[in-house]
Here is the input.
Amino acid sequence: MTKSNHFTSLLFYCALFLPVKSFADVGDIAQKTALYAQETYQDEMIESLRQLIAFNTVAVAGLPSPKNPEHQQFKAELAKQAQHLGLDFIDYGYVVVIGLGDSKERVGMITHGDIQPFNANKWQQSPLKLDQNSEPGKLIGRGTEDDKGPITNALYAMKSIKDLKIKLKKRIELYVYMAEESDWQPLREHIKQHSLPQVNITLDAEYPVVTAEKGYGTISMTFPKTQENSRFSARALSNQTYISEFTGGFFGSQIPEDAHVTINNASEALLEKIKQVAKSHLGMHYSYQWQGTQLSINALGKSAHSSKPEYGTNAITHLADLLSVKQWPNNTSGALVNFLNDHLGTGLYGEKFGAIAYSDEFMGPMSVQPTVLKAKEDGMQLNINIRRPRGKTTKQLAIEINATIAKWQQKNQVTLIDMNNDINEPFVQTNAPQIDTLVEVFSLYTGIKEAKPISIGGGTNSRLFPNAVSFGPSMPGTAYTGHSEHEFITKEQFILNLKMYTAVLVELAK
Ligand SMILES: [Zn+2]
Here is the structure.
């Protein structure tokens, strides 16, 4: 052995004894239980998920969850499964708690049983039927990732711990909230009246561990209906090229994949200009129809969770951009398109919206995305979804938003109605004792070393629970499919989640 070789091998042995974190930090019992869960419950867990996604637990306006028959049936199914698994079950109305053990010290898992709306035409099979065939390896259906898949994982993690009679110092509680996607107030009320677990993990976002979440916000305004006698009425515009209709979007937290425009008195020359712009729109598909001199364009982009606009292609902003070849007469739809082009554009982060754009080193940039247009009695309502990091006060943001809108109105001689900013605070968790455990379990089972806490654009119920951080279910760097029209979880991820949740629960409750 030469000297240098000897030196190299000495370095190697020294490295072995450096105090690096080793995965022995995840105990044997935790690892054994996780393995047992994987080997025992794969098929049963998929059956459980199949049952849970069959219920259309979308929120119905004006019908509280405890009175919604579909929600009641879903909870009855949950109760049946809990009983079958030997777990206790308490129904508080909006909140269901499924438990194991009876210590006062508790570990909580936070999930939700409601879902976002879906457009069934866009799915290969009904999104309420678990589809394992269309794309082998994937479990496709509404709620598979957000958030019924994690509920099933949690149930079988608890069951595995029970089967192996693991001695727990803490009770484990699975919270299933029934209005996470629509209304957090009933959960706030519940929390006022009940004590919560001292340590919590939310199974509704991504790995390795989420310690910060942007604040959710909606900027809305209505472009007023054009009056019969105004200079923008159909009669007054009869000799001009104008936009008679512009629609798009589905719901507030989905990057829209559909938009539609109708242009009256259009010309071939205009269409040529539009098609020129279309060439630069990657990921968009347009179809054009003529009816006399009326030109209609359908835009198809790609839906995504609005907290991750990078994974989608916004049909509303892109279609508006196609129309940026000219300034339009300011009737209802024309004013709307002009505003979209003046202050949204195809960027994701509010770059054109006056001074509002900003970014935080850890939390990233604020996203600013129009998501849905709603036809109202008095005009067309534009809803812009924002996700804001720390770094600006809500008041400052509101001032900046209002200043831009005011200036635009003045310049365009348009008076918008029902302007409203509803902007929530970002959430930063600074005090959660379980973070190291979560990171260690994640690294052990994924092989991803150097995992660190992250910040996300989505908002979860973490902020309402003590010492709560998110842990899964989706992997960092993969497209999150919840809220999209192609929601799935891979079978591999589904099983991996079971293992990680099982190990984490053993570690936190033992
Ligand atoms: Zn969710």
Notes: The pocket of zinc ion is lined by residues 112, 146-147, 180, 204, 482 (CB under 6 Å). DSSP finds eleven helices and 25 strands in the chain. The two ends are 49 Å apart (CA to CA).
